[in-house]
Specification:
transport; ATP-binding; globular; alpha/beta; three-stranded antiparallel β-sheet; ATP binding
Length: 230
């Protein structure tokens, strides 16, 4: 399944943040989106999630009428998405809001908690989880809504080494379930371990779309000392 972007532009206070961006995303593929701060990485993900207004087209597969039916957005700070007083309540919040039957809610919640290795924490207070656990919970809560594409915005930036590993392993599991993963990140070497593809955005435009190793080499070369000491 493909999510296709054609001539996408996003403006903020009259200033272009993204300009004429055309690309696509596939289920069963991890795409890392890289670029300097302010380049438009997060804005691209937010457009794909229907969180910002845009010009151009986002072409959905047959059977979908809106991007928020197809995609799910996970923020950098998982605490901004925590709502429930327990892990289980946090996962079911969105499911209750869309009016699912209790049996379906229970089924979906149990499935994503097992998949993200959180079943043993279902009755725990989310705020006392580790950073990696909180981020996996944020992913689980979105995944329960059954999007085909997960949009992950700097989801490892606030985590320690152990938390980063937990989240990377979870992302690979989701890819193997044929989910499309789009992750905006500054952690190039970390995500190059699992990414199938790399999109490099500079000044709101795509300047590279291809193999991660080649995109990262181009980015590091262009950033030079700014990258090394950032």
């Amino acid at each position: 399944m493909q999510l296709i972007v054609r001539h996408l532009s996003v403006y903020h206070n009259g200033v272009a943040v993204l300009t004429n961006v055309s690309t696509y995303f596939e289920t069963g593929e991890i795409t890392m989106v890289i670029g300097p701060n302010g380049s438009g990485k997060s804005t691209l993900l937010k457009a794909l999630a229907g969180l910002v207004k845009y010009e151009g087209e986002i072409i959905l597969p047959d059977g979908y009428e809106a991007v928020d039916e197809l995609t799910g957005y996970v923020f950098q700070n998982p605490e901004t998405q925590i709502i429930g007083s327990t892990v289980f309540e946090d996962v079911i919040f969105g499911l209750e809001n869309i009016g699912l039957a209790p049996t379906e809610i229970e089924k979906r919640a149990n499935y994503v908690l097992e998949l993200l290795e959180l079943s043993n924490l279902r009755d725990s207070d989310p705020y006392y989880l580790s950073g990696g656990q909180k981020q996996r919970l944020a992913i689980a809560s979105i995944l329960a809504l059954e999007p085909e594409f997960l949009l992950l915005d700097e989801v490892t930036a606030m985590l320690d080494k152990s938390g980063k590993r937990e989240v990377l392993e979870a992302i690979v599991r989701l890819k193997n379930l044929n989910k499309g993963i789009v992750v905006a990140t500054h952690e190039l070497d970390l995500f190059s371990q699992i990414a199938d593809r790399c999109i490099y955005i500079r000044d709101g435009r795509i300047v590279f779309d291809g193999q991660p190793a080649d995109g990262i080499e181009m980015y590091k070369r262009e950033m030079g000392a700014e990258f090394l000491y950032r």
